[in-house]
Write a structure and sequence with these properties.
heterodimer, A: alpha/beta, Rossmann fold, six-stranded mixed β-sheet, three-stranded antiparallel β-sheet, 10 helices, 36% helix, disordered C terminus, B: mainly alpha, MetI-like fold, binds adenosine-5'-triphosphate, binds magnesium ion
Chain lengths: 270, 262
Amino acid sequence: MSERPTFSNCAGVGTEPVIALDGVAKSFAGFRVIEDLSFRVRRGEIVTLLGRTGAGKTTVLNLVMGTLQPDAGSVRVAGHDPFLQFKALRGHMAVSFQTDRLLPWRTAVENAELGLLILGRPKREAREIAASWLDRVGLSGAENRYVHELSGGMRQRVSLARALAVDPELVLLDESFSQLDHITSSALRRDFCNLARQFEKTCLMVTHRIDDAIEMADRVIVLGAKARIRLEATVPSASAVGQTRDGLRRDIEIALGPEAEQESSQQERG
Amino acid sequence: MEGLAPRPAARPAAIGDIVAMSVVVIAILVTMHVVSGFVPDYIMPSPAAVAKAGWKILTGDMLHVMATVGRLMLALLFSMVAGVLIGLIMGVSASIRPFLRALVVIDTGIPALSWILLAVFWFKDPEVRIFFILTMILLPFYALNTYDGIRALPKDLVDMIESFRPSRWQIVRYLIAPHIVPYILLTTKTVVGYATRMVIFAELVAAAVGIGSRMGLAQSSFHIDEVMAWTFLLVVLNMILQLIVSGVEKIALKWRPEASVR
Ligand SMILES: Nc1ncnc2c1ncn2[C@@H]1O[C@H](COP(=O)(O)OP(=O)(O)OP(=O)(O)O)[C@@H](O)[C@H]1O
Ligand SMILES: [Mg+2]
C-alpha cells in the first residue's frame, strides 16, 4: 500500500504522454459538444485550456477524468482508458473542480484528508499530510473550521489542498477560481502552478484569463465551438525574441473570437 | 406572512416559549378546578385529585412507564436501523428498488389498527406483538426518508468523491451516511410523538404491562383522576423525548450554520 506504482512503472514507457486524446467525439442527447479532438500532454507539462463558455472545456476534463465515455476516438491517461479502467488510475489523478465541492459536515482538515483516506492511508498519517498541505496553501490555523466558517477563497484553497494531498502525478484544474475576485484568483492560480512545478506534477488546467494562462502554462490550447482546436502554442519565455508573449496574447485573442475579452472580464466580475 | 418576519434571537424566544407554556398550563389547571366544582368527580376530577393520582403513579407505577419507554426505544431503534438499510438499498440498487418501494407503499397504506389486530392474532407474546406493530408502522417512514435523502445527494459531491475512485462502501461511508443523518433525525423528530401514541394504543389492546394497559385499567374502574394523571405524564414524556431528539440534532448537526439548526 505504501509503495504506490508511479505512472512510469504502471504505464511501462517513460516517454509516453500522460494524456493522449485521439479523434475524440462526444455528444449529449444528440447535441455534439466535442467533434474531433486530439491533443497530448507530456509528463511534467502544464497545459492550459482556453475557450469561450460552452466550448466543452469541462467536458474534456471529465473525459480525461474518466467520468464520461467518448462516443468515438480514444482517451488515454498513462496508457489506461480512464473510463473503462476506472480503478487502474486510483491515486494517480486528482481534480480541483469549478466549485469547491467540500463536504459541509467535515472541517477543513477533514476535507483535505478525504482523498488520502479513500486511498487507504492510515488515519494519523492522512491527518498529518492534510494539515501540512493546508499549511502550504496558507490555511494553518483554520484546520478545524467547518466549511460554512470559511470564506470563498479559503474554501478553494482547501479544495486545492484536497487534490494535491493525494500526491497525484496528474492534476486537473477546472477554472476553480473564477468566482473569486481577480486578485485572489490570480494569486491562487499562481500558487497552484508554483506548487505544481515544485512537485513536478503534470497539469491540465482550464482558465478564462489569458494573462494567467500565458504566465503560468508551458503550452496553451484554445478551443473553439465543438472543442475544435483553434490554436495550440508553446508559451515563449518572458525574455524571448521573435514570437513574444505579447504576440501570443494577440493570437489567443484572435482565436477566441471578438467577444472573448469582454466575456472573460464579465466572468471575473461574476 | 410569518416567514417574512425577522427571526427573533434565540434566547428571548426560548424564554417567551417557557412563559407561554406556563400561562397555558395554569389556564388549563384553573379551568379544571372551576369545572370540577360543578360536575361529578367521574367527569372532571379536581387538579388536586389528579396530582394525587400522579404522585401514586410516580411512586408505584414507574415499572409500567419504563416498560413503555423501553418498548418505544427498542422499536424506534430497530425501525431506524432496518428502515435506513432498506432506504439505502433502494437508493443504491436500481433493480431492487421498485420491489422494495412497492412493499413500503403497501405498508404505509395499511392502517395501524389492522396491524394491531393482526398482531393479536399472530403472536402470543405481548412484547413481540408491540414490537411488531410499532416496527410495521415506523419502518416505512425511515425507509422513504432515507431514500429521499439519497436522491437529494448533490451530483457535484458525488462527482467529487468519484474522482478519487472510491469503493462503493467508501461512497456510503464518506458521502451517503453523513448526508442522510439530518434526514434520519428529522424523521425521528416527526415520528416520536406518533410512536408514543401508537405504543400506548398497542398496549391497551395487546399487553398487560405498560402505560396503555394501566390507562385501560383506570378507565374500566372509573378512575378518571388516574386517566388524567397518565395523560399529563404522557404529555411531559413527549416533551422530554422531543428535547432529547433536538439535543442529539444540535450535537450531530453542529457543522451546520446556526440558522438551519433552529
Ligand atoms: N451532462 C450534460 N448533459 C447535457 N449537456 C451537457 C452536459 N455537460 C455539458 N453539456 C453541454 O455541453 C456544452 C459544453 O459544456 P462544458 O461544461 O464542457 O463547457 P465549458 O467549456 O466548461 O463552459 P464554461 O466555461 O462555462 O465552464 C454546453 O453546451 C453544455 O450545455
Ligand atoms: Mg466548465
